[in-house]
Specification:
23 helices, alpha+beta, 4 domains, 797 residues, disordered N terminus, elongated, 6-stranded mixed beta barrel, 22 strands
Length: 797
C-alpha cells in the first residue's frame, strides 16, 4: 500500500471527480436538494426569529415601550413624583385606562374596547403610537378617538367613521380621526383571554381630560408605565412600586415587561419558532447524510479497479480519500447554494407572514453572515458524516485487493421458496425474492431510507392533529357555554338573576375572578384565581383530553404549566397574595394539578373563594347557555347594559383563532410538508437509481436472453415496491418517535399541544411516500428502457 505523500498534480483526480459527479448527476442533484432543504429551513426559521426579534426591539425602542406596568384603582398625580424617586426608575408616565363595551357598525355582537388616555397637545412619554392614517385627537373635541388599526381594518373603518361606547353607564358616540399601532398591543388581545379577536376587541386613544372627566379621575390616574435605567434591579423596583401603590391606591401589582400580555404572547411564539428552527432542519440534514453515504459507498464499490489503479500510479491513501471527500463537499456546496438562497427568500416571506398577525409599523428582515456560515457548516458536517464511511473504505483499500473483482454473490433459493410459498410466485417474483435475500444489508438500508422519508411527512403534519384536539378539548369539552359576560366591577349575587332574565338565556352559571400573586419558594407569578361552583356544567375543569375534575372544598388547583413555573406540586403550601379588597396574604394547600392545554390558570371552588375574600355571593360574571334564535336580541341588550364590561362569544373566538393563528400555523406546516415531500422524492429516487446501477448488468442479461421490457421493469420496480411497502410501517413508527421527541420544543407558557397522531396523518405520509415511489419508478423506467445493452455487458469479469 502506498502511504507516502505525492506532489503529483491533482488535475487528473479533479477531472475524474467532475466526470463521476456528472455521471450520477441525478443523484447528486437529489441529495443536494435534500441538503438544501435542511439548510433552507434552518436559515428561514432562525432568520425569521432574528428578524422579528430585531423588528420588535427596534419598535420598542423607537416608540418607548415600558419596562414596568401597573394598574390600580385611583391615585393622585402627586404619587407619580414618588414613583419617579425610586432608585433605578428612568421615566414615569401616568394614564387613565378603562375597559368599555363597544357598539361597532355592522357587528351584531358587542365588542370590547380599551380606552387609553392621550395627553392633550403632545405625545405620550411612554408607549407612544404609530399613526398609520389620519391625525391625533384634539383637546377641544372630547369625542374624538384614534382607533387601533386591527379593529378598524376588521370592520372597514376609516377616519370620519364613528363607533358607540358605553362610558360610565352612558352610550356615547366616538368619532374616529386616526388609525394607529402601539408597541403595547403588538399582539392585540383583550384582558383575561388567550386568543386574539380583533373584530371584537380594539383600543381607542382618547383625550385625557375627556376620559378622566367621564370616570371621575380628574387630577388622578389608574394606570402607570415606567422605564428603568441601565443596570437597575428590576425585582427591587417592582417591590418598591408595589409598596407605594398597594397601600391606599388599589394597586394590582407591578408587572415586568416579560409578563406584559402582548409581549408575553409574542415571546412565547418566538421561543417556539426558535426551538423548531434548531430541531427540524437537523432531521433533514441527517437524512441527507444517510443518502450521501449510500451513494458514495456505491461509487467506491463500482470504482474498485480505478482506486487500485490510482494507488498503483503513486497516489497516496490520503489523496484518494480526499478525492472522495471532495465529492461530498461539492454536493454540500451545491446544497448550500440552493439552501441559503431558498432560505433567505422563505425567511423574508415568513417574516412578512408573522407581521400579518403581530402588528408592527416596520419590517426589518436580517440575514446575518454568522447564520449563513453556521448553516453552511451544518451542511458540510452532514456531507462529511455521510461520506466518512465511503472515504474510510477507499483509504483502507490495498491495490492488490482492489484489482480483484468483488466476490460473486451467493445464489440460493429464497426463504419463501423453502417454505413452500414459491409455487404461488411467478418466475420474476421469485427473482425479486432471491435478490432481496441475497443483499439483506442493502435491502435494510433502502427500507430505512424510505422509512425516514415517511417519518418526515408524519413530523411535518402531526401538529395539525394536536392543534385540533387542543381546540376541541378547550371549546367543546371544557367550555360548554355560548357566551361569557363579565361585569364592570364585582357584583352581588342578585346580578345573576338579572342575567338569567335576559332574552335567550337558557342557563347561567356564576364565576368569580380575583387577581392574585402566587408564590412558592423564590418564584412568583401574577394571575387570577377563578372560582366556579361545584358541579359546574358550562365551564368545567378538564385534566388531559377528557377527565372532568371536581374542585375540592378548600384546596387550590393549578394548571400544570403554572405549577411548573412556580415549582410547586400537590401538597405544597402556596402563598396567595390577594390584589383586591382587603389584600390579604394567605397560604393555601395545592390540592391538585390539572393538565390543561391553554394558558396558566388557578382555580378554587366558588364558596372557598368567597371565604378567602370574606365576602358574600359576589360575582365577576357569568357563563351563559343561549338560544341561538334569540342571540341577536341578547347581544343588542348586552351592548347597552351598564354593568356588563365585556362579552366573549365562544363561536366567534374559535372562528377568529382559525382565521389568525391557526391559519398561520397551517401555512407554516405547508412549508414543512413541501420540504418533506422533496426529501421523500429524493430518498426514493436515489434508492431506485442505485438499484438500477447495481443491477444494470443483470437486467441487461435478462433482456438479451429474451425477457421483455415489461418483465425486466417488473423485476426492478417490483423490488422497489416491496421495499417501499416494508418501509411504510417502519416510517410510521419512526415518525411517531420523532414527533414525540419534538413535543417539548413546541411547549410554551401560552399553550401545550397534546401529543396525538391521527390515522389521517399516517395515511397522508403513506400516500406521499407511495406517490414519490411511483414518480421515481416512472423516471427510472424511462432510463431502463434506454439501457445500452452492449455497453453494460462489456465489463471485465
Amino acid at each position: 500500500m502506498v502511504t507516502g505523500s505525492s506532489r503529483r498534480p491533482m488535475s487528473a483526480l479533479n477531472r475524474k471527480l467532475v466526470r463521476d459527479l456528472w455521471h450520477v448527476r441525478g443523484q447528486v442533484l437529489a441529495i443536494a436538494t435534500v441538503v438544501g432543504a435542511g439548510i433552507a429551513l434552518y436559515v428561514a426559521m432562525l432568520s425569521t426569529f432574528d428578524s422579528l426579534d430585531l423588528t420588535l426591539r427596534t419598535y420598542y425602542d423607537r416608540y418607548r415601550f415600558g419596562d414596568v406596568f401597573v394598574s390600580l384603582e385611583r391615585a393622585p398625580l402627586s404619587v407619580a413624583d414618588e414613583l419617579a424617586r425610586i432608585p433605578g426608575v428612568a421615566r414615569v408616565d401616568t394614564r387613565v385606562v378603562v375597559d368599555v363595551m363597544l357598539d361597532v357598525p355592522g357587528l351584531d355582537e358587542p365588542a370590547a374596547g380599551r380606552l387609553i388616555s392621550f395627553p392633550a397637545g403632545g405625545r405620550p412619554a411612554l408607549c407612544d403610537v404609530f399613526l398609520r392614517e389620519g391625525r391625533l385627537p384634539e383637546a377641544e373635541r372630547p369625542d374624538e378617538v384614534v382607533a387601533s388599526e386591527g379593529l378598524a381594518r376588521a370592520h372597514g373603518l376609516h377616519p370620519g367613521d364613528r363607533v358607540h361606547a358605553v362610558i360610565n353607564g352612558r352610550r356615547r358616540a366616538l368619532f374616529i380621526v386616526g388609525l394607529a399601532l402601539s408597541p403595547e398591543f403588538v399582539y392585540p388581545i383583550r384582558p383575561g383571554e388567550i386568543l386574539p379577536d380583533e373584530k371584537r376587541f380594539g383600543v381607542l386613544w382618547m383625550d385625557r381630560r375627556a376620559l378622566a372627566a367621564a370616570f371621575s379621575l380628574d387630577g388622578a390616574f389608574n394606570d402607570v408605565v415606567l422605564t428603568l435605567m441601565p443596570g437597575a434591579s428590576e425585582p427591587d423596583v417592582l417591590a418598591r412600586v408595589d409598596r407605594i401603590l398597594e397601600s391606599g391606591y388599589g394597586g394590582l401589582g407591578a408587572v415586568p415587561r416579560a409578563l406584559q400580555a402582548s409581549h408575553w404572547y409574542l415571546a412565547n411564539e418566538l421561543l417556539q419558532l426558535k426551538n423548531s428552527g434548531a430541531y427540524v432542519p437537523v432531521i433533514f440534514l441527517g437524512v441527507a447524510a444517510f443518502l450521501l453515504n449510500i451513494v458514495l459507498s456505491r461509487l467506491v464499490l463500482v470504482q474498485r479497479p480505478q482506486v487500485a489503479a490510482l494507488m498503483a500510479l503513486g497516489y497516496s491513501n490520503h489523496e484518494v480519500a480526499w478525492h472522495y471527500v471532495k465529492s461530498s463537499l461539492v454536493i454540500a456546496a451545491l446544497g448550500a447554494v440552493i439552501g441559503v438562497g431558498a432560505g433567505a427568500w422563505l425567511g423574508w416571506a415568513m417574516t412578512r407572514l408573522y407581521t400579518l398577525f403581530f402588528h408592527f409599523p416596520i419590517l426589518l428582515y436580517r440575514l446575518q453572515a454568522g447564520l449563513v456560515l453556521q448553516s453552511v457548516g451544518l451542511g458540510v458536517l452532514a456531507a462529511a458524516l455521510g461520506g466518512i464511511g465511503a472515504v474510510w473504505r477507499a483509504a483502507r483499500m490495498a491495490p492488490a485487493e482492489a484489482l480483484r473483482p468483488e466476490a460473486p454473490a451467493r445464489y440460493s433459493v429464497s426463504l419463501a421458496e423453502r417454505t413452500g410459498l414459491g409455487r404461488f410466485l411467478t418466475q420474476p417474483a421469485r427473482m425479486i425474492a432471491r435478490a432481496l435475500q441475497r443483499h439483506p444489508g442493502r435491502a435494510a438500508l433502502s427500507v430505512l431510507g424510505i422509512g425516514l422519508a415517511t417519518a418526515l411527512m408524519v413530523v411535518g403534519t402531526f401538529t395539525l392533529d394536536s392543534m385540533d384536539l387542543m381546540m376541541d378539548v378547550q371549546f367543546n369539552v371544557a367550555q360548554r357555554f355560548d357566551v361569557m359576560a363579565t361585569f364592570v366591577r364585582p357584583a352581588s349575587a342578585g346580578a345573576l338573576d338579572d342575567i338569567r332574565r335576559l332574552p335567550g338565556v337558557l342557563a347561567a352559571e356564576p364565576f368569580r375572578a380575583v387577581p392574585v400573586r402566587l408564590g412558592f419558594a423564590h418564584r412568583s407569578r401574577h394571575t387570577a384565581i377563578t372560582g366556579i361552583p361545584r358541579g359546574a356544567r358550562l365551564n368545567r375543569i378538564i385534566d388531559g383530553p377528557s377527565r372532568v375534575v371536581e374542585l375540592p372544598a378548600g384546596g387550590l388547583v393549578l394548571s400544570a404549566m403554572l405549577a411548573r413555573v412556580l415549582g410547586a406540586g400537590p401538597g405544597d403550601d402556596v402563598a396567595v397574595e390577594v390584589l383586591e379588597g382587603e389584600r390579604r396574604t394567605v397560604r393555601m394547600r395545592l390540592a391538585g394539578v390539572v393538565d390543561e392545554y391553554l394558558g396558566m390558570n388557578a382555580y378554587l371552588e366558588l364558596d372557598a373563594l368567597h371565604a378567602l375574600m370574606r365576602e358574600g355571593g359576589t360575582l365577576s360574571g357569568a357563563y351563559l347557555q343561549v338560544d341561538k334564535a334569540f342571540a341577536r336580541e341578547l347581544y343588542s341588550t348586552l351592548k347597552t347594559t351598564p354593568q356588563v364590561a365585556g362579552v366573549l362569544i365562544k363561536d366567534a373566538a374559535l372562528a377568529s383563532f382559525d382565521e389568525t393563528m391557526a391559519s398561520m400555523m397551517r401555512q407554516m406546516l405547508a412549508v414543512y410538508i413541501i420540504f418533506a415531500g422533496v426529501i421523500a422524492f429524493g430518498v426514493v429516487y436515489n434508492n431506485a437509481r442505485i438499484s438500477l446501477a447495481e443491477r444494470s448488468r443483470e437486467l441487461a442479461t435478462l433482456r438479451v436472453i429474451g425477457f421483455g421490457r415489461g418483465e425486466v421493469s417488473y423485476i426492478l420496480l417490483g423490488e422497489i415496491a416491496v421495499l417501499t411497502l416494508a418501509a411504510l410501517p417502519v416510517g410510521c413508527l419512526m415518525g411517531y418517535g420523532m414527533a414525540a421527541s419534538m413535543m417539548s420544543l413546541l411547549e410554551t407558557e401560552l399553550w401545550r399541544l397534546p401529543f396525538v397522531i391521527l390515522p389521517r396523518t399516517y395515511g397522508f405520509a403513506v400516500i406521499t411516500s407511495l406517490g414519490s415511489t411511483i414518480a421515481s419508478a416512472l423516471i427510472v423506467r424511462t432510463r431502463l428502457d434506454r439501457l445500452d445493452l452492449v455497453a453494460v455487458l462489456k465489463i471485465r469479469e
